[in-house]
Write a structure and sequence with these properties.
With 184 residues, the chain is an alpha+beta fold. The chain has 2 domains: 36 residues; 138 residues, Beta Barrel (OB fold (Dihydrolipoamide Acetyltransferase, E2P)), CATH 2.40.50. The chain has 4 helices and 10 strands, in the order αβββββαβββαββα. The longest helix has 33 residues.
Amino acid sequence: MTDIDPLIRQSVASQSLDILRKRAESLAQVEEIEATAEMFALLCFRLGSEWYAVRIADVREIHNDFVVASIPRVPSFILGVINVRGEIISVTDTAALIGIASDGVHGGQEMSSAIIVHSELCVSALVVDEIGDIIEIRKDAVEPPLSTYDRSQVEFVSGSVYVDGRLIGLVNLEKVLEPIGEKA
């Protein structure tokens, strides 16, 4: 019996080492997968009681406390223009464009916050009620827009993501910055 005990111990030790090695390899693979998941940063903002976000890569700057110069005969969601270091930039009433209620006072009034975004074709200042945090999310965490959005909202919201129990709509900047009268 004493001769068998060392053999059993050696076998059990060998099996335990194999199990631990396999677990370590498995955990390393999961970590590798998580590390390679595509991540991107978003700038969150509030419109009324709802939260939205734009990709940080599309944000040029945040502009605070500015006065808008009105332009005649433009759509109601274009509030006018502002001068930012010699560049004339259109100002978009983001809430009116998306079709939701907002806290902001608009129409030639002094505004508090705008996110200046850009694409290859256009630059615009998106008026928002509140600037939020910058968050980083995994690309695969983005879900399709909620079915509760009406047709006009779906056009300007490309997806949604849950962060800390809060639903955040991702603004479709391609549509928001599309020149008026052009179809993609």
